[in-house]
Amino acid sequence: MNRTLRPSRDFTPAVPVLGAYDPIVSLFTQERRWRSALLSQLAPKPGEVIADIGCGTGSFLVLLALLGKDAAPGQLVGIDPDERILERARRKLADAGVACELRQGYLRDAARLLAPLRPDKIVSSLVLHQVPLAEKRAGLAAIHAALRPGGELHMADYGLQRTRAMRWLFKLVQAVDGVQDTQPNADGIVPALMREAGFAEVEETAVIPTPTGSISLYRGIRPATDDRQEQPA
User: Fold this and answer.
1) Residue 93 neighbours by CB distance under 10 Å
2) How many Cα neighbours within 13 Å face the side chain of 77?
3) CA 50/CA 59 separation, integer angstroms
4) What does 23-35 look like in DSSP terms, one character per residue?
5) How far is the C-alpha of 84 from the C-alpha of 87, rounded, in Å?
6) Helix H or strand E encompassing 213
């Protein structure tokens, strides 16, 4: 991918020491709790095509692949803009014996990268808060276009920070990822952006307090009768 065609700050890169990436996410976001809730909400079924956008080091993809035969999806695809992280994901997936295709790209690239597959479900976690508002909109629109009609989007990300304590803790995230990109999430904009992108039955299904603010789970459906034309970016 030619990064010279991208704005200078489309996303917040992973921590400089990649070996610390997974432990930091686990420690500061209560990862096990929200990943378990997200997996339960996703409810994968045999034969489904599922894409993880912003897949990071592939932890969630491994969880999906190692489900029992009555739940394991048929095809997995991971997308992330950071080639260093993707290389780490390749090693993790290989070590776990997981067959998964990894592709480099941004949120807004989802329609182009997934056009031949038409996923049944797309999952994304801790990505939307890191990108500018325009990228949030472009990314959700691209995800909507990538899904088959009737397909589902499931997200876990920092959402509306409802209490003084959560707003104070969320300042830790803002110190790293910046206030401008993260504040719309903290103000509760995500459901509105999902509806704007064309998703129906949008809901915030859970709010999970963590040491860095509350993480919300979201769900939305691309209507089965949706006749919008997909225009891969």
Assistant:
1) 23
2) 23
3) 14
4) HHHHHHHTHHHHH
5) 5
6) strand 213-221
Query: What kind and span of H or E run contains 133?
Result: helix 133-146
Other C-beta atoms closer than 10 Å to the C-beta of 166 total 20
Indicate the pairing of strand 75-80 with strand 213-221: unpaired
Of the pLDDT bands very low, low, confident and very high (cuts 50, 70, 90), residue 8 is very low
Structure tokens at 57: 């080091």
Q: CA separation (Å) from 192 to 47, 60, 121, 126, 128?
A: 31, 26, 20, 18, 13
Give me the DSSP letters along 55-72. -TTSHHHHHHHTS-TTT-
Over the stretch 171-186, which tens digit does the pLDDT of each residue have? 999 998 999 999 999 9
Q: Answer for the pair 185, 159: CB distance below 8 angstroms, yes or no.
A: yes
Query: How many beta carbons lie within 10 A of that of residue 134, not counting itself?
Result: 11
pTM greater than 0.70? yes
CB 121 within 8 A of CB 151: yes
Mean pLDDT of 35-43: 94
Q: How many beta carbons lie within 10 A of that of residue 57, not counting itself?
A: 25
